[in-house]
Amino acid sequence: MGAGMTDRRRQKHRGPQGLPGANELVTRPRTVIVGGGIAGLTAATALAERGVAVDVIEKESYLGGRVGGWTEQHAGSDFAMNRGFHAFFRQYYNLRALLQRIDPALRMLTPVDDYPLIDGAGRRDTFRGLPRTPPWNALMFALRSPTFRPRDLVRMDARAAAPLASVSVPETYDRLDHIDAETFLKNINFPESARHLAFEVFSRSFFAEPSALSAGELATMFHIYFLGSSEGLIFDVANANFDVGLWNPLREYLSERGVRFQMSTAVHRVETVGAGGFRVHTDSGDPVDADGVVLAADVAGLKSIAAQSTNTANAPWHEQIRQLRNAPPFAVHRLWLDRPVEPDRPAFIGTSGHEPLDNISVLNRYESQAAAWATRHHGSVVELHSYALSSALSRTEALRQLHRLYPETAAANIVYERVLERRDCPLFTPGTYVRRPRIVTPQPGLVLAGDGIRVDLPVALMERAATTGWIAGNHLLSRWGLAGHDLHTVPTQGRSAVLRALARRGEASDDRG
């Protein structure tokens, strides 16, 4: 699925200039990358393609991090498993650039032509058939929503709402990061029912309630997916389990370029040695020496490594790392059923008012392993997601909501099921943007990457992970005089000059008040 890069106003960010490859250097630099998720694999790609020697150290037995996949056995059968649904939006330019290394046509991705949103009252929003051009995409979505009436548009506070249409990164965080998303939406008089059905679904994709999410993050997200891009609101999904479709082929690609992988290996600490070198200590007992290090671990892993790496960076940096927090837990509940769901069920729906359920995926609609299992057993593979959990998942209540929305599943027998509960996603609470650690650290040669790391570009979720990986790699390449890689994003500011001017006038009025 090669769609994307159609927005003529997308922004190009040129990589550093330099020598074409490490073979032109007197000595070949070596980098250790801690973490084999999207950020780490992207950094590995950036460096290996310029001839840098790369070691990837991953604590799990599989690559991909929170987008990893594996196979489980039960009763003599294989069951493909991962941590749940991920949407590959067309404006994820830098993630798609990574995946194009293994297939320029992106045939590992399949478009989802709609993802309805259904609230507790049965009202339904849809993204099908929306215009691609901002602001008409967002306006049409609102006006045809059963929860948003034309008079609601008139009642909205246009001045308070202007930051949604005049995003500029990082300035938007300066304006909005001090308040939470729920308060911001109330301030602009956004109707409550529409707020729950539309914005809450998106905010909870950050694994947090709107009351715990920075309004700056919400506005940036609205810019990325609605008003800042004309790539459209329909996304793609991986058409095979993530290990088979994405990361095993990428590992082969990187291995061919000399990248070495240490799997099921945890990094304990990083120490500086000699004149600008590093020694990475692992639980295997064999330290690895390097000229550069990319820490692309999750929040808990990064905090643990930094706490034990006492001779790296400085005290303010260590304090930034200590202040990082995880979002509340989430659960992925996958069910292999002995009966099919109705043929008209969409591949994915988002829900509001169906606690603890946030969305339902019908995997056999798009994933090859699930489709093969469903065909063999005349059944279906269904996945339930529950975000921002305040307590342990109620399996009974999650199934009750599934049966309420898809009544045919109530009569199905469960052949196999898996419930994963995790708490390892970064939390973006109000007021924390300025305290987030940046990609470049005070320790020369040590850089960070991941979706919890600050980058002053309009990117989020998987795209933030990939973007920070490219930038981390570029920084090290530049340090050694090597050429980097170009990046692309949606425009870094709102597309409408009129709305940007309105926002500036609103800010001036607020300052005078």
What does this structure look like?
The chain is an alpha+beta fold. The protein has three domains: 11-66 and 242-326 and 428-489, FAD/NAD(P)-binding domain (3-Layer(bba) Sandwich); 68-89 and 108-113 and 235-240 and 327-422, 2-Layer Sandwich (D-Amino Acid Oxidase, Chain A, domain 2), CATH 3.30.9; 127-232. 32% of the residues lie in helices and 20% in strands. It has helices at 38-48, 93-99, 136-143, 150-155, 158-165, 171-176, 181-187, 192-203, 215-227, 242-255, 299-308, 315-322, 368-377, 395-405, 461-479, 497-512; strands at 11-13, 30-34, 53-57, 69-74, 77-82, 88-89, 109-111, 117-118, 124-125, 235-238, 260-262, 267-273, 277-282, 288-290, 292-295, 330-337, 348-354, 357-362, 380-386, 414-422, 446-448, 487-489. The strands form six sheets. Strands 9-8-17-18-19-16-20 form a seven-stranded mixed sheet. It has a five-stranded parallel sheet with strand order 11-3-2-15-21, with helices on one face. Helix 1 (38-48) runs parallel beside helix 15 (461-479) and helix 2 crosses helix 15. It is globular. The mean pLDDT is 90.
Give the neighbour order of strands across the main sheet.
Answer: 9-8-17-18-19-16-20
Briefly note the CATH topology name of the largest domain: FAD/NAD(P)-binding domain
CATH superfamily of the largest domain: FAD/NAD(P)-binding domain
Question: Architecture of the largest domain, according to CATH?
Answer: 3-Layer(bba) Sandwich
